Amino acid sequence: MTFLPNSIEARDIAYQMHPLVDLKNYEKTGALVIERGEGIYVFDNNGKRYIEGLAGLWSVAVGFGEKRLSDVAKAQMDKLPYYHIFSHKTHGPSVDLAEKLIQMAPVPMSKVHFTSSGSEANDLVVKMMWYRSNALGKPEKKKIIGRVKGYHGVTIAAGSITGLPRNHASFDLPLDRMRHVSCPDYAGTALPGESEIAFSRRMAGELEDLILAEGPDTVAAFFGEPVMASGGVYVPPEGYWQEIQAVLRKYEVMLVVDEVICGFGRTGEMFGCQTFGIEPDVMVLSKQISSSYLPLSAILMTEDFYGPIAEESARVGTFGHGYTASGHPVATAVGLENIRIIEERDLVGNCRRLSPLFLARLADLARHPRAKSSRGVGLIGALELKPFAEGGKAGAALQARAMEEGVIARAIGDTLCFCPPLIITAEQIETMFDAIARALDTISE
């Protein structure tokens, strides 16, 4: 494709390296230039409007162009645009948000540590897990278990827990301390006649077998998303989390729940932990914590997790870790206001009320000759397609056609994923899925 000289498209190709693309192909195709946003919509530089069916990157809960957030950001920029929380320093916005998160937590939590992304937060949890094991005099208890198709970020440690081969290829990942168990894809991998409960017990049995094979004294933690999102939206079957937690408690393995996508209302409760009855030792939050208006993430930890780390820092003389932007005053001020908006406008309730329509429309689409099945919970869902002769291409074809119809969604192999802003209305859900139905007809032809 040819772009006008000095156009934003041409300059983008010339100067900018992008994530999650075939970089050589990108040099030929260029990008869709998004110029502004309003509510659930974004607009490109030609004025075309799109329903943002993935809330940006699973994250813009309150929609685009929320003036309350820009006003708070400006006010904080004018008052204190930046300060750190290193070495006995603090400021109001980070304290206020930490207090709010502790009050909101679905289980008793002791402390909050702020970072700037989910990847960064999960990476730090691994680092602290190793620090804690040393503090407890268990230097061998360092292995981390993730799941196939799980997603926890792209740093060296978080990328190693992630269970997606494309994120490991040519990066020399995963690290040798990381292990993986199966994705709880009941619809795709259940044995003939196997009930959801039986499947969940089999998944827990696989986890127990791995812990025993590795040695319980060598396994520190299990990482899991309440709903596996970036791997293709896999909703846990009945009893899954109860069975998994029983195994973890039996062998004193800590549970780290990655709420980066599920948190702040996506599953119909404030946290995915509440939807599925999960009791974490550590929670990782990001994305909808600030609707991604500013980079922000948070690690919530129990006293059982925090206490040994604090003791070890006293022995060593310091907790030798820190990020320049941890607890950034503008980001934490925006995060707190974003949570106020979610609560005041009952966006969690909006998710609960609209979920039956959202999931019903997905199920209707699954009856299309080109489709195979659908799955979801709350306002996150996926439509799985029958593969083309060349597998893995159907999702990309539907994604491209959906954009022509004015909907942005996310293709993952032969699956198209949806995760719209929590402010979406029933009418807008109908419009979005009507467009997807037309796109399905087109790729079928």
Characterise this structure:
The protein has helices at 8-15, 23-29, 55-58, 67-79, 92-104, 118-135, 156-161, 186-189, 196-214, 240-250, 272-276, 303-316, 329-344, 347-365, 394-404, 426-444, and strands at 34-38, 41-44, 49-52, 111-115, 143-147, 178-181, 219-224, 254-258, 282-285, 297-301, 371-377, 380-385, 407-408, 410-412, 415-418. It starts with 7 loop residues before the first helix and ends with a helix. Helix 14 packs parallel to helix 16 (426-444). The mean pLDDT is 97. It is an alpha/beta fold. Strands 4-10-9-8-7-5-6 form a seven-stranded mixed β-sheet, with helices on both faces. The longest helix is centred in the middle third of the chain and has 19 residues, at 196-214. The protein folds into two domains: 32-62 and 346-444, Aspartate Aminotransferase, domain 1; 70-344, Type I PLP-dependent aspartate aminotransferase-like (Major domain) (Aspartate Aminotransferase, domain 2). The chain contains 16 helices and 15 strands. This is Aspartate aminotransferase family protein. Its cofactor is pyridoxal 5'-phosphate. Keywords: Aminotransferase, Pyridoxal phosphate, Transferase. InterPro entries: Aminotrans_3 (IPR005814), Aminotrans_3_PPA_site (IPR049704), PyrdxlP-dep_Trfase (IPR015424), PyrdxlP-dep_Trfase_major (IPR015421), PyrdxlP-dep_Trfase_small (IPR015422). Pfam families: Aminotran_3.
